[in-house]
Amino acid sequence: MLRIQVSLENGLVLNFDVRTLPSNLDNPCPARFTLSAHDGAVSSIDVNPHIKGCIATGGTDKLVKVWNVTDDVEGGKRNVSLVSSRDLGVYGQGKVFSTIFSPDDPLTLAAAGSKAKLQVWDVGANMGARKAFGAKLREAGRVLREKEASSGGVVGVASDEEESDVEGGEED
């Protein structure tokens, strides 16, 4: 199924099936689901490449959120629930500019903000995330291992302003 997510400045995320989009803009297509994701603009969104129905959003409210979208087989509706929410401290002036899932690890997420900060979040360190996505990972043939959660799953990454060990003492 071909789906697109649209993030809006009012904090909403809308999901559409592109096969049902009308060619006549006078007849708008209803969204498959609408998610009130953030208090303020949604500045980034990513769909997990490993877990069906796992979406991450970042917003101007300084938060990164992970969502679980499930289909109600009988009613044909989508249920969207918040799995985890975190202030990763990447915002500087109040904006999370980028959220992206790892292409290698199903529950690892990177987020970047307006002060050139990057944080890596091991969402799998959260018990709610393991509970929400464990069955979906097993269906996809992936194994979710228990991980030590000493830092709550957040890994810091050095910024460009910190000194590096470049040979000769000069940076490129």
What is the topology, as strand order, of the major beta sheet? 4-5-6-7
Poorly predicted runs are 162-172
Class by helix and strand content?
A: mainly beta
What is the overall pLDDT average? 79
Overall outline: globular
Report how far the terminal alpha carbons are from each other.
Answer: 45 Å
Radius of gyration: 18 Å
The major β-sheet equals: 4 strands, antiparallel
Instruction: Report the strand count.
Output: 11
Kindly state the percentage of residues in helix: under 10%
Question: What is the percentage of strand-forming residues?
Answer: 35-45%
What's the tally of helices? 1
Order of helices and strands: EEEEEEEEEEHE
Structure description:
Residues 162-172 have low confidence and may be disordered. By secondary structure, the chain is mainly β. The chain is built from one helix and eleven strands, in the order E-E-E-E-E-E-E-E-E-E-H-E. Helices cover 8% and strands 37% of the residues. It has one helix at 127-139, and strands at residues 3-7, 12-17, 33-36, 42-47, 54-59, 64-71, 78-86, 96-101, 108-113, 118-122, 154-156.
